């Protein structure tokens, strides 16, 4: 806690806010990519403390929020089968599919279990050779190495009864999609520090150059976020673009080479559908063909399940920074954390959940 005190120091935060105010001469719109950053901004009221002219919009950096509806329906179809032990992190258990969620089918008799590590699922496969154990592997580059290690371990042990249903997504292609979308208003990005800790910062350089935008990796504490905003504003005001690392205590330009290597051994890049956004080319990871025995979608032949998104939910516009949660007519009414219509409300990192939790229901 003593180590973190500097990054929560109100005097330092106030000084950074003053520096931001002194640097701003025109309006700018900045997107924070990560849902963890969104919650920190809401919790500490940073968006309300920023000077007029600085608008923060919330990006698609919540893995639960962007997991496509059809992936949830495919997971539900697998989990409901006899002889299957279906495992998942807790944040996916309440994500609504088209009709059910994992907790509901568990109450109907499906063997659905929450795990804290994918290696727990591998252990279950080892202990239950007569059962099929499936792990729901979702997330950004941050969780991909751990999920890859679990699959690699299962393959090394010859555990053919272990498989993953995979919906890993990659951040840079999503940023590309946002910048090229009609109506885009994002002029700079706060990149997610934990993603950059794995993948490094060089992957953002071509995107920053192509679109002439600043990309600033930063952390999740108030001072981290304000330093990131200050750096982004300075670059915008000078007409500069590129990648500047504001999270040097964690992020290196090369990232984590060992983590990147294990991801490359297990997964390969593919086109991926994002919930509320649609198909983004080369924005996902799938299991390599040589490891197909561990690919749950192939093993259980559920690739044919496709699902249309509900029209009442505007999560896609929120994830692209085009709208804010209170602008949704269902927000706080038909859609609440207890009865979510979309993943941005059900997820603990979702923007809608953040606005609801921190009583931002009336913001325009």
Explained architecture:
By secondary structure, this protein is α/β, with parallel strands linked by helices. It has 2 domains: 1-313, Rossmann fold; 315-357, no CATH class. It has helices spanning 2-5, 10-23, 35-44, 46-49, 63-66, 69-79, 102-107, 118-127, 144-157, 171-180, 193-199, 205-211, 222-238, 257-266, 296-299, 315-319, 343-346, 351-357, and strands at residues 28-34, 54-61, 84-88, 111-114, 132-139, 162-169, 188-192, 214-218, 242-243, 267-274, 278-287. The strands form 2 sheets. A 6-stranded mixed beta sheet has the order 4-3-5-6-11-10, with helices on both faces. It has a 5-stranded parallel beta sheet with strand order 2-1-7-8-9. The two termini are 36 Å apart.
Sum this structure up briefly.
This protein has 364 residues and is of the alpha/beta class. 41% of the residues lie in helices and 19% in strands. The mean pLDDT is 92.
